[in-house]
Design a protein that fits this description.
The structure holds two protein chains of two kinds. Chain A is an all-beta fold. Chain A is built from no helices and eleven strands. Classes of the chains: A mainly beta, B mainly beta.
């Protein structure tokens, strides 16, 4: 399976600021996804990061709040904009590619907004 | 809506088999059953998946009933490190945008010494 890294692993931010989370994969992948896991909750899909085009967002998530980039087949970023304490969560990227199309997850970024 | 139903929690003794049930009575013919686990807020870890045949790998076995309406994940010799939340997910296996996973609440497995 692909090796996935995320930066930063954790951060504490002030409300009103923005944070960009990076997801790097050690091999080219077809699909990249971003999930959010709020405290004590399960994972919720934010969007599918599309290479060379705009991300596809799930209901309840908008590009202005969570802009996503995917410049190539191994890298994606998620920005959490104008943060509030409600954005405190673990943000996870995942990837899948051809074959069985199994999805693999990164280690996550733990974000705390004060 | 979640397509699977799992008990909220269960426990087992270390060294014994852990049998984790999942109901997916509305599963479609082209949907696979996937199992992931999440240990203490780490990223979810893929365990196993299947369509209709039973599957086994180095981590676990997946038993799917003949009517495919339920399945059981078996950890043959549970250790303390297997304590985690286990998610049973059904998903169309066509790739692309259909690759997205819908997580329910999962089942919390506690392995006791």
């Amino acid at each position: 399976s692909a090796v996935i890294s995320q930066k930063p692993s954790r951060d504490i931010c002030q409300r009103g600021t923005s944070l960009t989370i990076q997801c790097q994969v050690d091999s080219q992948v077809t699909m990249m996804f971003w999930y959010r896991q709020q405290p004590g909750q399960s994972l919720t899909l934010i969007a599918t990061a599309n290479q060379g085009s705009e991300a596809t967002y799930e209901s309840g998530f908008v590009i202005d709040k969570f802009p996503i980039s995917r410049p190539n087949l191994t890298f994606s970023t998620l920005t959490v904009s104008n943060m509030s304490p409600e954005d405190s969560s673990i943000y996870l990227c995942s990837v899948s590619s051809g074959g069985t199309d199994t999805q693999y997850f990164g280690p996550g970024t733990r974000l705390t907004v004060l | 809506d979640a397509k699977t139903t799992q008990p909220p929690s269960m426990d087992c003794a270390e060294g014994r088999a852990a049998n984790l049930p999942c109901n997916h009575s509305t599963i479609s013919g082209n949907e696979y059953v996937y199992w992931y686990r999440q240990i203490h807020s780490q990223g979810p870890q893929y365990i196993i998946h299947g369509l209709k045949n039973n599957e086994t790998n180095e981590m676990a076995s997946l038993i799917i009933t003949e009517d495919r309406k339920s399945s059981t994940l078996i950890l043959p010799h549970a250790t303390l490190r297997d304590t985690a939340v286990y998610y049973c997910i059904v998903r169309v296996g066509l790739g692309g945008a259909n690759s997205k996973l819908t997580f329910g609440k999962g089942i919390t497995l506690s392995v006791r010494p």
